[in-house]
């Protein structure tokens, strides 16, 4: 897994590392789904950083 999230000041930043040269929609969608699942799973811990 190459995705992560972290705090930058008072904001939550989501990142993922993908190879742009070979990126197709399926890989992009899988990356998006992975980050969405991580965010949903940890929403309780991240709630204080919501605006």
Quick recap of the structure?
The chain has 51 residues and is of the alpha+beta class. 41% of the residues lie in helices and 24% in strands. The chain has one domain.
Descriptive report:
The chain has a two-stranded antiparallel ribbon. With 51 residues, it is α+β, with helices and mostly antiparallel strands. The chain starts with a strand and ends in a 5-residue tail after the last helix. The model has no long low-confidence stretch (mean pLDDT 83). The protein contains 2 helices and 2 strands. The protein has one domain.
- Mean pLDDT, to the nearest integer, reads 83
H/E series, N to C? Answer: EEHH
Kindly name the structural category: alpha+beta
* Count of DSSP strands: 2
Question: How is the main sheet built?
Answer: 2 strands, antiparallel
Instruction: Characterize the quaternary organization of these chains.
Output: single chain
Output the number of helix runs: 2
Query: How large is the radius of gyration?
Result: 12 Å
Bulk shape? elongated
Helix share, percent: 40-55%
**Percent of sequence in beta strands:** 15-25%
């Amino acid at each position: 897994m190459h995705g992560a999230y972290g705090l930058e000041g008072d904001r939550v930043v989501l990142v993922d590392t993908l190879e742009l040269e070979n990126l197709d929609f399926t890989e992009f969608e899988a990356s998006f789904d992975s980050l969405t699942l991580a965010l949903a799973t940890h929403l309780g811990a991240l709630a204080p950083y919501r605006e």
